[in-house]
Design brief:
By secondary structure, the protein is mainly alpha-helical. It has one domain. The chain contains five helices and no strands. The two termini are about 30 Å apart.
């Protein structure tokens, strides 16, 4: 089966897993995604998806381009308008996005810095697990 199939399958499994294990599933809807509690759940799910793709999908030219498309699409498709605006301000480009744990760590730190959250040490980064 194609790499795209497996990538889509991983995405669906991770989304299901995050929502299936959340106590707040019944309270979450697209209309209130920017509520603080739901925004936090959305952010955690997004980070988990991105980190898991980087850690578990074979790195190839094709997958690198697919990953770049995924990251770049966030500034257009992210459900939270406030977060979407912050992503646009980052001015991500295909040249700066890499399907590597180090890129993900640095990208995650940019967001955490903006949110005044804890920063991760990205030196000698090989693999990162969010959970």
């Amino acid at each position: 089966m194609s790499t795209a199939f497996w990538l889509n399958l991983i995405v669906l499994i991770l989304i299901y897993e995050d929502y299936a294990h959340s106590k707040d599933v019944d309270q979450c809807s697209c209309t209130d995604v920017c509520g603080e509690k739901n925004k936090e759940l959305l952010g955690q799910g997004t980070w988990r998806l991105l980190h898991e793709v980087v850690n578990n999908v074979e790195r190839s030219d094709k997958n690198e381009k697919l990953f770049q498309n995924l990251v770049l699409s966030l500034e257009h498709l992210y459900p939270c308008a406030e977060c979407r605006a912050h992503i646009k301000e980052m001015k991500l480009s295909r040249d700066t996005i890499e399907m590597t744990p180090k890129f993900m760590c640095e990208f995650h730190n940019k967001v955490n810095k903006q949110l005044e959250k804890e920063l991760y040490n990205c030196d000698n980064f090989t693999k990162y697990f969010l959970y």
